[in-house]
Design a protein that fits this description.
alpha/beta
Length: 641
C-alpha cells in the first residue's frame, strides 16, 4: 500500500474515531456488550513461527509450515492460534520491531500464505489471532524515515510525507534535549531533535500523547496528532480482519500514552476509541492484551488479559509462585515453586494474589477472561527444571481454571528451557524459542527432529538433541497413553466436554491452607452455583449443561488426608449425592482405581466409595454443611463430579 493510500484510509478512520468516542476519558462510556461467543470454549495454541515448522528447507519456520501442522493442532483440541509477529521486520527484536504492518516477512512467506492459513484454519474450526505491536515500530519503518528528515531541507513529495508523519513519533524540540526521564536517542537523524524509545534503540515510540504534558514537545493524549496515530492503527486492524484474521494479541497494550495515571486513564481512553469501530464492524474479533491488570484492560475493551509471569527484584506474583518461583530457571536448587514436588509451598500465596483479581473481574467484567498460560516466548519454560509428573499437574490446573487458557508450542510434550546464545534480541528469552521437536533425534538421518531438513548449522536455533533423545518429541509421545502429550489431549477434551470447566464456570476454593500442599477447588456454571449435583441427571449432564466439578491436586510427594465442605444441604440431597471420578492422574499416569471418600456432618456420618456412589445416612435427620474427607495420593490430580 502506498503512503498516499495509507493517508486516505487513516483520515477515514480518524473521522470514524471522532464519530464514536470523545477524547476526554471522563466522557467515555465504560460499558461494553462486546463478547465473541467462540471464546467461551476456546483453548489457544501459541506459535513462534520461526521455530515451529520449516517447509522450504531454509532452517526457519514459516507460514506454510504452520498450515501443514494444523491437523496436529486440531488433534490437541485447540480451537485458536496466536501467531507471534510475522510482519516485515529487520528482526532486531524477533519481529517486535515492525517495518511494514501490511506485509508478511519474506522469510515466513507471503500475504497470500497468511490468508491461506486463515482459510485452512477456519475449515478446521480454528481461529487465528495475530500479534500486533502498537506502541512502537522499527526505525526502518517508512513513517519513521519520513518523520526523521530535516524539515528545512525537504521539498515536494518528501515534504508532504514529512508533514503527514512528522508527529507520528515522539520527538523533542532539539537534538540536544533530553527525554524528560524517558529513554531517548539523539544524533542519529537529520531532524534537529531527539526521539523517545520504548525498549531497544531500534524501537522509536509512537505518539499517543501524554497524560500530563509539561514540555512544549509533549502533546496531550486525545489531541489531533495522537488521534491520527490511533486512526492509523485502526486501519491496520481493518486490513487484516477483512482478510480473515480473527483478532489480535496486543503487545504491551498498557504502554501507549506516556506519563499516564496509575489507572492508565488515557491509555484506556485511547483503546476505547480504537476498539469501538472495530467491535462494531467485526463483532466476533477477539482481543487479548499483554497488560497483566484485567481491571484496566477489560475496561479498555479487551476480551482477555494474561496472568503474566512477574518477578520483580525477587518478588513473585501469584502466577510466578506456581511455576517459576526461582532466580535460577535451569536449577531446582532454591526453587520454591508450588508445582515443584520438593517445595514446601502451599497454595495460599497464589490465591492471595489471584483471588482479588478474579473476584473483581467477576463483578465488573463477568464476560472477560484473566487467562493462564503454560508459558510464552518471553518466559522460561519449566521443562528442564520440573519433571514430567510435575509439569502434568501444572497443566492440569491451568487447563481447569477460569478464563481462556494458552498453550505455548512444545509445552504439550515438555520441551525444555535451555541456555542459548542470544538471537534477534532474545537474550535470556532465547532459551524458550528453540525449534519444535516433531520426531525422534538421529544425528545422521534426523538431526533437526523433523523441524527442518536444512543443514543443522542453518537452523534458526539449535535443536534440543538431548531432550529429544529422552522422548521429548511428538513422535515419541503421540501413541503413548501415559505421555504428557496424551494427558494434555485428555485435559483439553474434558474442558470441551464440561461447560463448567470453560471460560465462564465459577471458581471456588474448597481447601487451601498453610498446613497442606493440596489445593481443592470447584468449577461450576454460574446459574448452578447454589445447587448440589443431581445424580439422576448425571447421564444427561456429561458433556453438556448442568454440572459442578471438583478439582483436587496434590503436587507434593506424600499423600495427604484432607477435608473440605460443600454448601448446606438437606438429608435428601445427601442421600442422593454422588461423587464420581472423571479423571485420576497419579505419579505420571492415568489410574482407574476408585477414590475413597467419606461424607459427614457434626451429628451424622455417611461413607461412600465410587462403587456405591450414594452416601448412606446412618443417623438422625439434619441440615448443614457436608464435609468431604479424602486422601489424595502424592503427585496426583483428581477430577470429580
Amino acid at each position: 500500500m502506498t503512503q498516499e493510500a495509507d493517508l486516505t484510509d487513516r483520515r477515514k478512520n480518524l473521522t470514524d474515531l471522532s464519530d464514536h468516542l470523545p477524547a476526554d476519558p471522563s466522557q467515555i462510556d465504560t460499558s461494553s456488550p462486546h463478547h465473541p461467543q467462540w471464546l467461551d470454549d476456546a483453548v489457544f495454541y501459541e506459535i513462534y513461527p520461526q521455530s515451529f515448522f520449516d517447509s522450504n528447507q531454509d532452517g526457519i519456520g514459516d507460514i506454510p509450515g504452520i498450515i501443514s501442522k494444523l491437523d496436529y493442532i486440531k488433534s490437541l483440541g485447540c480451537t485458536a492460534l496466536w501467531i507471534n509477529p510475522c510482519f516485515d521486520s529487520p528482526f532486531k527484536d524477533a519481529g517486535y520491531d515492525v517495518r511494514n504492518y501490511r506485509q508478511v516477512a519474506a522469510r515466513y512467506g507471503t500475504n497470500e500464505d497468511l490468508i491461506a492459513l486463515f482459510e485452512q484454519a477456519h475449515s478446521r474450526e480454528i481461529h487465528v489471532l495475530l500479534d500486533l505491536v502498537l506502541g512502537h515500530t522499527s526505525e526502518e519503518h517508512p513513517w519513521f524515515i519520513s518523520s526523521s528528515q530535516d524539515s528545512t531541507q525537504v521539498t515536494g513529495h518528501n515534504l508532504t510525507d514529512y508533514q503527514d508523519f512528522s508527529h507520528r513519533y515522539i520527538w523533542t524540540d532539539s537534538a540536544f534535549s533530553d527525554g524528560d526521564g524517558m529513554p531517548f536517542i539523539g544524533g542519529e537523524s537529520q531532524r534537529d531533535a531527539t526521539y523517545i524509545l520504548n525498549f531497544f534503540e531500534c524501537q522509536p515510540a509512537l505518539n499517543y500523547g501524554f497524560g500530563d504534558p509539561h514540555r512544549p514537545w509533549q502533546e496531550a493524549a486525545g489531541s489531533s496528532h495522537p488521534l491520527e496515530t490511533e486512526a492509523a492503527m485502526v486501519d491496520i486492524m481493518r486490513f487484516w480482519l477483512s482478510r480473515g484474521c480473527d483478532g489480535f494479541r496486543v503487545d504491551m497494550a498498557d504502554s501507549l500514552v506516556k506519563r499516564d495515571t496509575d489507572r492508565k486513564t488515557y491509555t484506556i481512553a485511547a483503546w476505547k476509541r480504537m476498539l469501538a469501530p472495530i467491535h462494531r464492524d467485526f463483532p466476533q474479533a477477539a482481543f487479548v492484551s499483554e497488560w497483566g491488570r484485567p481491571d484496566q484492560s477489560l475496561e479498555a475493551g479487551f476480551d482477555m488479559d494474561f496472568y503474566l509471569d512477574w518477578r520483580w527484584d525477587g518478588k513473585p506474583n501469584g502466577y510466578n509462585r506456581l511455576l517459576r518461583n526461582t532466580d535460577t530457571p535451569l536449577s531446582r536448587k532454591g526453587d520454591l515453586s508450588y508445582f515443584n514436588a520438593d517445595s514446601p509451598a502451599c497454595p495460599l500465596d497464589f490465591l492471595s494474589d489471584y483471588l482479588p483479581q478474579y473476584y473483581q473481574l467477576q463483578k465488573a467484567h463477568p464476560q472477560g477472561s484473566f487467562s493462564f498460560i503454560t508459558c510464552n516466548h518471553d518466559t522460561p519454560r519449566v521443562g528442564g527444571r520440573l519433571e514430567k509428573e510435575e509439569i502434568a499437574l501444572a497443566w492440569a490446573m491451568i487447563l481447569t481454571m477460569p478464563g481462556v487458557p494458552f498453550i505455548y508450542y512444545g509445552d504439550e510434550i515438555g520441551m525444555r528451557y535451555r541456555s542459548l546464545a542470544t538471537k534477534e534480541g532474545g537474550y535470556r528469552r532465547t532459551g524458550s524459542r528453540s525449534p519444535m521437536q516433531w520426531s525422534s533425534y538421529d544425528k545422521d538421518t534426523n538431526p533437526a527432529c523433523g523441524f527442518s531438513t536444512a543443514d543443522p548449522s542453518k537452523l534458526y536455533l539449535p535443536i534440543d538433541a538431548e531432550g529429544a533423545s529422552r522422548g521429548i518429541t511428538v513422535e515419541d509421545q503421540d501413541q503413548d497413553p501415559d505421555s504428557l502429550l496424551s494427558f494434555v489431549r485428555t485435559l483439553v477434551s474434558l474442558r470441551h466436554s464440561y461447560r463448567a470447566l470453560g471460560r465462564s464456570g465459577t471458581f471456588t476454593p474448597l481447601l487451601a491452607s498453610d498446613k497442606h500442599r493440596c489445593l481443592i477447588y470447584s468449577r461450576q456454571l454460574p446459574e448452578l452455583k447454589d445447587q448440589l449435583p443431581a445424580p439422576e441427571d448425571s447421564a444427561k449432564r456429561s458433556g453438556t449443561e448442568a454440572e459442578r466439578l471438583i478439582c483436587a491436586l496434590n503436587p507434593g510427594r506424600q499423600a495427604e488426608t484432607v477435608s473440605f465442605f460443600l454448601q448446606d444441604a438437606s438429608d435428601e440431597d445427601c442421600d442422593n449425592l454422588s461423587l464420581s471420578t472423571v479423571l485420576r492422574y497419579q505419579n505420571g499416569r492415568k489410574e482407574s482405581a476408585p477414590l475413597d471418600f467419606s461424607l459427614s456432618r457434626p451429628t451424622d456420618l455417611h461413607r461412600s466409595t465410587e462403587e456405591g456412589n450414594k452416601c448412606q445416612r446412618t443417623s438422625q435427620a439434619g441440615t448443614g454443611p457436608i464435609q468431604v474427607t479424602v486422601t489424595l495420593p502424592g503427585q496426583s490430580f483428581i477430577l470429580l463430579k
